[in-house]
Amino acid sequence: MDDSDGKIEFLCQPGLADAIPAPARAGKFIPDWYRSLEREMGMPTKEGLPGLTAKACLPMADAFGLGFVIPLPVTVRLLIPEDRVNIRMGWAADAPFQPVETHHPGQIGAPEPPFQQVMPLKFINPWRIKVPEGYSVLFTQPFNHAELPFSCFTGLVDCDRFHTTVNFPFQWTGPAGDFTLPAGMPIAQLVPIRRDTLLRDHEARGASESELAEQNEANRMKYTEISSYAREWRTRK
After folding, report:
1. Are 124 and 100 within 8 A, CB to CB?
2. pLDDT digits (tens, 9 = 90+) for 110-148
3. Fewer CB within a 10 Å sphere, N or C end of the chain?
4. Does residue 182 fall inside a structural domain?
């Protein structure tokens, strides 16, 4: 049995292992806007329960902690012009590799909609993702990280067979200006997925009477009982 069975491994060049921020469980990268949010808004709902913020939303909390995050390996400076196309990039002269590159705009159909003023870029990822046989990895923008001024394109890679690194194409979504992206900031979230567990069959239909009754009872509990999701439905991840 391979040593990687049952776990995910992140492999880099030996000389980089202690020189750049390492990937970690996604829960270690929860953003400040969420951490500082109060759980209650200080006003009741129309049903008379305490009005809650996103801090009390367990599905959002579970998404923050799902899978793993790849951090930016070195600090990057980006000069974003008003046209969002002629972007200038820079990093320390002693950086171990070029951390950001450009894509040809034609690769996403730019400047045609919806990419009229977009220069596609990509983060260079030094980490090869090694997973057990039968696993693919979903790479995407870090979930609910509204503070990030960029948006990664989403991709699904069969990393059990693809024995090299996966880079992260992205577009700048922040304003024009001079920006410093610090080493260690989250740039991509990844979720290992067993291919044989994917649901492929589907059906769209009207609900039965018993299903409607079940839904109505769930709605009643959701809006009239405190912590009903945590108590009745959530499974710890």
Report:
1. yes
2. 999 999 999 999 999 999 999 999 999 999 999 999 999
3. N
4. yes
Range of the domain at 177: 9-30+65-197
Give the integer Cα–Cα distance in Å for 40 and 165.
43
- Number of domains composing the chain: 1
Output the domain CATH number for residue 69: 2.70.40.10
Q: What is the rounded CA–CA span in Å between residue 208 and residue 205?
A: 9
| Gyration radius from the chain CA atoms | 22
Cis peptide preceding 111, ω within 30 of 0: yes
CA atoms of 189 and 23, how far apart (whole Å)? 10
Amino acid at the residue 83: D
Residue 131, domain member (yes or no): yes
Question: pLDDT for 72-88, tens place per residue?
Answer: 999 999 999 999 999 99
Is residue 56 a part of any domain in this protein?
A: no
Let me know if residue 101 belongs to a domain: yes
pTM for this predicted structure: 0.90
